[in-house]
Amino acid sequence: MKLAWGSLTLGLAVGFWLLPVNPGESAQSGSGFKASIAGDVMGDVNGPGVLKYLAPSKSVAGQIPGRYFLADNQGLRELGVTLSIPESAKVGSYKLVSASPLDAGKFFEIRVDRSVGNNVLSYSNETKGELTLSSFPSKPNKVSGSKVKGSFKFKTQNNEGKSITVQGKFNFLAK
Question: Region 13-19: what's the mean pLDDT?
Fold first, then answer.
């Protein structure tokens, strides 16, 4: 398995969220994943929608609970939106927060990445917002073929304190 960039273990330890890049896995049916970004960065995010489950694992920080990654697409892209969703998630509304990398998998988190040359600028600090899941897999081993539908709206900052506001929705069948 190839990774978009960096090492998954190292990435999680420093807060990076990486999705494997597997050609052909991102082709979904439905309207996909769409978001509008305003503020320090302006733009639209459009992708097929991707949902991946990461099983519980051990790290230097201890046991990391199982969690889902929901994103517009896989791999490095000009603008990308990725949500980290606890394994226990069900249909409903949830607060989006900025959690410590030591709390990976315990909270509903969001991250917006912007590629600038060879660098990735991330927005995931001081997050305030809401995620609504209208349809979501009932079990981690039942991701493939599951309908994934919902919406989100949040405000977040980068490490320099520059803010963005993001709102979007997703509707696709997970592969």
Answer: 39
